[in-house]
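Title: Prediction job returns without error message
Component: structure pipeline
Severity: low
Priority: P3
Assignee: unassigned

Description:
Job completed but the reporter wants confirmation the result is attached to the right record. Sequence as submitted:
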Amino acid sequence: MKRDFHRIKRLPPYVFEEVNRFKAAFRAQGADIIDLGMGNPDLPTPEHIREKLIETVNKPRTNRYSASRGIPGLRRAQAAYYERRFGVTLDPDTEVVATLGSKEGFANLAQAITAPGDVILAPNPTYPIHQFGFIMSGGVIRQLPAEPGDGFMRALERAMQHSVPKPIALVLNYPSNPTCLNASLDFYKQVVDFARREELILISDLAYAELYFDDNPPPSLLEVPGAKDFTIEFTSLSKTYSMPGWRMGFAVGNAELIAALARVKSYLDYGAFTPVQVAAAAALNGPQECIDEVRTTYKGRRDVLVSSFGRAGWDVPPPPSTMFAWAPVPDRFRHLGSLEFSKLLLEHAEVAVAPGIGFGEHGEGHVRIALVENEHRIRQAARNIRRFLGKADAELHNVMAGEPMPDR
């Protein structure tokens, strides 16, 4: 008997799964795929963090159930990070909760605050959980432009005037995944003033706070005076300390929102493995030179990608932050769409990227390129792409005529 599950029916096909199937098929045939698709950091976790994990694992009591909200020392470490990095004071007992990565925290917050039919304002394009966490919880998404500025504020005004029922929350994501855009503190001040007037909850995803390539560190929304009255902000250790598989993130901010998230979590998990939490505290409290090294590595890869892809015939705007580049699909391929272009790159250049349509309809016409291969492999990707683009006109003629593309 075939069953229809209400929440599953609300989810569209997962675009990235189709790309992953293509990727797996080509690898099964022996192709050496240069994978710039998933934002999966390849750098090693710093040694002092790994050593703390090993030390703690060897203590017998640490294999027991942990604390869903996060062990006290970890919450204090996160509060100390916010104090030194943003000048924001947090109560580790009421304004900080540890999450199993920021993605899990985001989804559980959506469950905590969303009633069926609630309207949530979210950017498009954006990381999928920013919208689908609420959709799975019964909410309705009204989309806003991703770029911060006057256009965003005008769209925000229109959304509040014309949405029924009135929106309850606004999602912000800067530095942005996938567009790599940054927001200024002045922009945040406008948003906070608006949210106070309209009684909106602000939900900020700050996962890429430490991956920036100029002299202007991205601010926290909580730096704006009064923002904590209605703001919750998510961060992650995944990119900052190259700890993606450790699944360690945080939510901080308004005590009522933190309590709601913590209550949902208390029914669903016992928190991360205690040694992981202890090691995460060591990451936040320990030497921070490793962050500079991670940032320098990604900047070097960014520069190599922009220059080598440019020489190959594909102009990629240099991203100011994150571990991605947000690249327009070359003009001659735009009519195919980002998904089909991504498939062509896989098949004929052995390079995997993430199609922009997977981040929302306004991501169409772009692909996201992750800086998760070393500089040598990025140059190899550029050489493969140059060869592909060099014969693209003939191959596209075959595609439009319904003929198979020539073999590699």
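Comment from assignee: result matches the submitted record. The first helix runs from residue 6 to 9.
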